[in-house]
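Contributing new records

If you add data, match the layout below exactly. Sequence lines come first and carry their own label; structure lines follow with theirs. Keep one chain per record. Anything else will be rejected by the validation script.
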Amino acid sequence: MSTRYKETKLIKVIKRAYRIIRRARVPFRNSKFSNHIFNNYVHLIFLTLRALSGMSYQRFLEWIENFEQILVILRIERFPHFTTLQKFASRIDKRYLDILIVISSTGPNIRILMTAIDSTGFSLTNASYQYITTIDRYREKGTLGRPRTKRKVRRYLKPTFVGEIRSQMILAVKIRRGPDNDSKDFIPAYKKVKNLDHRKVKLALGDKGFDAEPNHKFIREDIGGRSIIPIRKYKAMDYTTRGKYRREMRAGYPKELYSQRSKMETINSVIKRKMGGSIRAFKCKLQNREIMFKALAYNLERGLLRYYIRGFLESSLSKTLLYPQTNATG
């Protein structure tokens, strides 16, 4: 007698990831001479689940071994060693991860893109606040209390996300080490969207950190969309503002439409709350891969949530809860 398992959220994420990997046409194996114990699909799925859990490689595999149903779904005989996932993460082509992020963001009802861009920071260390902030015992005379100073820590990882503001899905990721200027990553991030996504960018929202005339020109002249980026020195006179599109922003822009940019802050908050705000990898290449797997894991989980909401709104229960008077009179 075969045992039937309940399809949990974890199983749904695995099945959705498998379909997206097949759509991206990722090679099943890197070489015909490789052993046939595991394949690229299995490695990608386990790396995405590890990013979603926020655990280390070793602890994640100790936890995932409790779910034997995954072996049946992925058609493997045993779970891979944690060093196998680390080696695969270091050698996978970044181009495949960019394609997977774009495909995982596609939806049936979104044919044009209303986008926003925002940068955030991920800590490269798990140092606590008590370690970073120290108390200076040698205070100056005449001052009250002991002033707090901060230890010098390593530079942080600074990814720039381009997201769709209606579906709240990530479209592209551009990574560098911070602190640095946000405006450098605007054009490279939108070039990824232009080259990998066939949908047209209709709107691009950004905060004052992306204020630059070349950014406006790229969106309006090269892509054919509309850009709303407030200028930094809004109190300056008109003649001191350089650039045609920057002067247009100086004259005014729709505040209600620009307020939708805050949804990118929501995306950053969700990623950090669910998957952690620090990076566990030590090598630069693995740090960048970890950020991209976090973005892919976020899109997969967000895609499931969209289907749940859409199914509820189309059900008869939603009509009873949302429109009780209409159903009662009808």
